[in-house]
Amino acid sequence: MKTLGQITRKLPVQEGFSLVELAIVLIIVALLSSGLMFGLGNQQKQIQFKEMQNQTDNVLNAIMGFAMTNGRLPCPADPNVSKQTNSAGTEILSLSPPNCDPRTSGCVVTCKLEHGVVPWQTLAIQEIDPWGNRLTYFVGREFSNPISYDEEISGVKARFSLDTAGRAKIQSGAGQPIASDVPAVIISHGNRAFGAYTSAGQQIPDAIGDEKINSNGTLTFVSRPPSDHFDDHVAWVVPTILKSRLVAVGKLP
Question: Which terminal residue of the chain, N or C, has fewer Cβ atoms less than 10 Å from its own Cβ?
Fold first, then answer.
């Protein structure tokens, strides 16, 4: 007769992961997670870049529409004004003599600034780019000064003529010319944002290299593929397109 010990079978021992096996599992999980995060990060960058391109196109279209209506390009808005201020996002104008009525004879109206930000309120467009900053904007006064009452009465329909040349130039990172005689330039300073203005009216410091060139208030701007040290997106008003649009609506010649 078999004893209870002889009848009872030996149950298999359940063994857990060893430290080495657990470490391997954690490494695999970490690699998979980092790859997923990297993919999501790239996808987010692509989405923001596409949004920025669409926004820049909208800005250019709004500027062209303004020019076709008013015979000039819009003046810049003051970049140092907080969003909470009433004048934020509007054209900044100077009157001569001071405080004169623009709709009366003898009153001359000019753009106070050539370098500033896109006047989003005047154009009824979005204030900030996908990274939360305003769009830098340059426009020459020869294209943007308002037409005075006296000029309008005398038959002037456009601030500029077919022969008027812009003063801005666009170059590559290597300094090669891309465009010249440019009337106006629009810049999104990208995710790096150095040189951009915030909605609080503060400029983000520490721009260097080509990003500094795009934010230091000169007439030279750099347009090149993005890198670890540059992600500005530069767009500009093409003079031939601007003038042809005004010819089409009877503002020129």
Answer: N
Cis geometry, peptide bond prior to residue 79 (ω within 30 degrees of 0): no
pTM for the whole structure: 0.82
Q: Is 163 exposed, middle or buried (CB count within 10 Å of its CB: 0-12, 13-18, 19+)?
A: exposed
Tens of pLDDT, residue by residue over 92-124, are 999 999 999 999 999 999 999 999 999 999 999
Q: Reduced to 3 states, what is the DSSP secondary structure of residue 31?
A: helix
pLDDT at residue 47 in the model = 81
Joined together, the tokens standing for residue 178 give: 């891309």
Radius of gyration of the chain (CA): 29
The total number of residues shown for the chain amounts to 253
User: How are beta strands 220-222 and 168-171 bridged, if at all?
Assistant: parallel
State the alpha helices, DSSP H only, in the chain.
4-7, 19-70, 120-123, 141-144, 149-153, 209-213, 239-248
Instruction: Decide if 184 contacts 143 (C-beta within 8 A).
Output: yes
CA–CA separation, 43 vs 87, rounded Å?
37
Q: Which residues of the chain have pLDDT under 70?
A: 1-17, 31, 33-42
Per residue in 192-232, pLDDT (tens digit) is 999 999 999 999 999 999 999 999 999 999 999 999 999 99
The C-alpha atoms of residue 216 and residue 223 are separated, in whole angstroms, by 15
209 φ/ψ sector (left φ>0, alpha ψ -120 to 50, else beta): left
